[in-house]
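Instructor's aside before we start: the two examples that follow are unrelated to each other. I chose them only because their records fit on one page, so don't look for a connection. First example below.
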Amino acid sequence: MRTSYVVHTAVLRGVEAQPVSVEVSVSQGLPGITIVGMPDAAVREAKYRVRSAFKSCEFEVPRVCFTVNLAPSEVRKTGTGFDLPIAVAILACTAQIPTDHLDGCLFVGELALTGEVSPVRGLVAYDLLAREQGLEFVGPSGVLASGGQALAIHSITQLRQGIRSLEPASATVREEASSHKAGSNERDFADVVDQELAKRAFVIAAAGDHGLLMVGPPGAGKSMMAKRMPTILAPLTDEERAESMLIHSVAGQELTDLKRGVRPFRAPHHAISLGGLVGGGRPVRPGEVSLAHHGVLFLDELPEFGPSVLQALRQPMEDQEVRLVRVDGTYVFPCDFMLVAAANPCPCGYLGDPDHQCACSPARIQAYQSRIGGPLMDRIDVLVDVARPASSRVIMGERGTSSAEMAREVATAREFGSWRRAREEHPVPDRAKGVKELCLSAEARATLQGMAERLGLGGRNIVRIARVARTIADLSESEEVMREHVVEACAYRTRASL
């Protein structure tokens, strides 16, 4: 029996994993396991899970005093992922398993009382840290996604044959990702009837990463269309998929669709808290805006969200990241998402509906619409009215423009925009450009100036209208923004209500 042993592991901090050393020391004294190094309740309870797992797997539990130090001690340790490294360190210290190659591995996993190893949140982050440090990651099977050097462990009984007896985990993941196919009942915009104008707005928003707000009565199909937005977006690139999987893994979310390249779609309820939307808690976890990174954040019944929650969206939409300052430091979560929102025009929902009488007073309507707030509305580029579809077309089962057709338009506009920017001397994304850099024709500039003066538009509104016009020009494969492009872009910013 050795007097001490050290095993590598890690702890989550935000969306990153920080290295931690599990140091086990054996000494005379009262038999038991003492864990130090600023552990939380879940880490302190590891000693009970470890002892039960040893007994179930017929390992010996020497009647000596084990002191487990989690270094560095100034960092708070949270979660159940320390079970496996603590068990490995004790077994190595008591010479019950081979110690060859243990110092070249990073262990993370929760132990069941039977000795089986269960997944924990953040395994993708742990895997990335192991690769950065030149270590092999050892954890539960079927949950890793980096394709690096990872070993899968199902039970601590496998440690009797040594680390080299474990099977690679990356192969298991590749087979799982390749064998999983999309369901046959995938949503399609063709199911949406009599909403071609709204579909045009969706194409523009998808082509230029613009925020979109639909306003219309109940039953018009707003939620139905929003749920189909991912079907017209390009699949995730390898880099985007890695970032999205990292965030979802840290939050303990399912990764199957992300492995297939499907962009995230998040639709939180309007009763969501501020921390649930932008992130927070203890330990600090990413919120819905970060889970929608490289995807779509859909806010249904927008005026029903809390005013403070809605206004918290302003900074993330501008900076594409959330910065949460806590006592123990600053947490940064990426959140480059496309905002899609839906709202009724009034509390009863029937303002302006020719088939229903609105029962709301002007004061109630004004109070309801003002809940969204002007600063947030300034950051929504495309605003479209959605009317209730004709009942005859719904009953006859007519089909509209399909997702495949809309996706081709979006792909064409994005390819043209990439070609256009590649010809520039100093290429920058369109979202970072001002009006002068967006190639407006003289007639288009004059039209935009006239509209801005008549509508009293501020600087942010003018720039956003110009960027929407640039996207419409890309859809037309026009290098220069023409007058008709500006007129159409202005039409999406001049709704009387909201």
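Example two begins here.
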Amino acid sequence: MSVLTALLITCLTFSGFAVAADNPNPKATVVKVNDKVITEKEVTDETNKRVAAQAQRMPEGMEISDWMRNRIRTSVVDMMVDQALVEQKLAEKKITIDDEKVNKQIEDIAKSQNLKMEDIEAEIARFGMTMDDLRGQVRRQLQIDALIDSEMKKEEITEEEIKTFYEENPQYFESPEQVRVAHVLILTQGKSDEEKAEAKKKIEEVLKKAKAGEDFAALAKEYSEDPGSKDNGGEYTFPRGQMVPEFEEVAFTLKEGQISDIVETQYGYHVIKKLEHLEAKKQTLDEVKDQIKDFLTRQKRNQFWQEYLKKMREGAKIEFSEAEEKLREEGNRPPVMPRPAPQG
């Protein structure tokens, strides 16, 4: 999972999804959090935006049920309650983040993913977000980080904790035997016999050029019809069990630097070059201790934050409107499934 995707998931989890109530009074109070009033308009605005994005990602023909609508609305109201509590605490602590820090954080995210700013805009649009939305979410996350720093007792992760995690989670540090190969694919799926014959001629031409020593990555970029690898010079790195058997057998059998003859699979004709054979290995504790320390630090901070939010809720005066209380009660009831009609 990319850093950007993880951030978006965090933002959407905090923002929630919701839908508008039928014929709402935009000025009606949905919930009061201490002295902060959250109106129907605020809930509706957030609702319409998030549901539109959710609908775009749903399979064609699927719709959100009334029960799911209630559950979704409840989640967005809960999110707004938490937001209000956080805003009040940030104001109390006088924690602010300037635009320069926000922009730098977004630039760092883009750089870590080798993305341009326009790439980020396209990515967040898939989640129904704009750059202003992202800046707001990044600013809030930086404020929360600063709040945690000011409230959480500093505890260093110990060497013993790192060692215990390493020993109890070997699956994170073991790599199976793998191969790194490049290939050129000429597709034959769904083609006529005449088209397959043309494909065979094309792959024979590629094989001839590869055997003559032409740059294999350049050949892949020019000829390959595999959209998943052609722009990367045809490269894949994989363990056993991930590719179709004919492709895998040749890839693991070749010697490093060796080029295969034509390999036929269900997808078409391939020419494969083996670039590297990677033996099964386990990273040592010294190699991963910094990563484990970072992970355990984030884990402790997340646990602290959840407990801190819970205490803020418990210490706050949160008053839902009568209509909202009823809606929340209905949303907690599972839908009644219709019984099948009797047979005979």
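The longest strand covers residues 268-278.
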